[in-house]
Amino acid sequence: MSPRSTPPRIPLEPDEEIEDDAEYLLEGEPFEIVSDHSDQEVASDNEAEMQDVSPLPDDSILLLQKHQESVFCVAVHPSAKYIVSGAQDHTAVIWDATTGVDVFTCTGHEDSVTNVAFSPGDGKFLATGDMAGGVQIWSSDASTPGGWSLHRSLTFSDLLWLKWWRGPTSSNQKAGPLVLLTGSVDGIVSACLVTSRANDDRPLKYLVGPGSAAIGAEIVPSTYATERPYIAVMYSDGDFRVWDLKTEQSVLTATLTPPSQSPLEGDDAMDGEASAGYLCMAAPHSVPGRECIDIAAVGSFEQITIIPCKPPPSDETGSKKLPANKLSCISLESAGTVEALEFSWT
């Protein structure tokens, strides 16, 4: 019971205190009443050592100060001109990456901003997302103060992640389609086509999963630079699916064994989802001139699982089931929970 809910103790007379204490002693055994000195200050054993510890050196080249609460995410503009940060104060701030001056504040979110991302290529758009599911798309606009303006607002279930995909440039040098992907706790992945037209509210595409959280998604590497991308999605319960974005159909599935869960104690035991199931996902980057490897890596407690994700030939109908013997597991004993994964660019 917490101190707030514990009723105050009624003070006893000195003689009553002694009598109560004596009841807990065996009759006939000698005992001594010792004065309580617990109220006296006792120096910590490590106090002298702590006084000798020097502060860590600050090697930063910029100090970005404007947020009023904890910062949860950052991203860098493709040109390296801007940095954006999202925070618990319900805002995202765009900074000049050279001077560290804040140039624009993205407002209007109703919860902590946990996801920020500039669009690939020219970085014309910025997506900011909050924990409650609010997503705002901002466009660079030299005619407005700060150089950015709100382009479109979207609302989803509790948001877990967002990321951009840019289609290939056409033969006449026309930029390919720009799509914003989002994933949420209810297992739904959405795809929003973003254009330069104001108030472009064309309907979104939805990839409806098994109901468990869509913890991550990656464009299948060999399809990234094509006009028909396939999206590999990992769900927290071990369900894995590759989706054809054009048809909104699943073409490849796999069922991973539910992973072990980290032992939780104390307050952590009240938030079991934090360490249960699959938590993160990554895939190799699609680099021009380099062979694409169609795999995905997912992380869980003390384990990384490698999943082949190459889509079946387009002339095959239905969804193909990936056998369990095609999955590779990397054991990380005593490593704890794997909460982030990334492939190198080289």
Structural summary, described in words:
The protein is mainly β. Among the domains are: 62-179, YVTN repeat-like/Quinoprotein amine dehydrogenase (Methylamine Dehydrogenase, Chain H); 209-259 and 276-345. 4% of the residues lie in helices and 35% in strands. It has 2 helices and 21 strands. A 5-stranded mixed β-sheet has the order 13-14-15-16-20, with no helix packed on it. Strand 18 (295-300) and strand 19 form a beta hairpin. The longest helix has 9 residues, at 14-22. The protein is globular and about 55 Å long. The two termini are 55 Å apart. Residues 1-10, 21-26 and 265-275 have low confidence and may be disordered.
Give the ordered list of helices and strands.
HHEEEEEEEEEEEEEEEEEEEEE
E-strand count: 21
Poorly predicted ranges: 1-10, 21-26, 265-275
Q: State the helix count.
A: 2
Overall residue-averaged pLDDT value: 85
Give the neighbour order of strands across the main sheet.
13-14-15-16-20
Strand content: 25-35%
> Which structural class fits the helix and strand makeup?
mainly beta
Large-scale geometry: globular
Q: How can the largest sheet be summarized?
A: 5 strands, mixed
Helix amount:
under 10%
Question: Nearest-angstrom radius of gyration?
Answer: 28 Å
Distance between the termini: 55 Å
Short description:
This protein has 346 residues and is mostly beta strands. The protein has two helices and 21 strands.
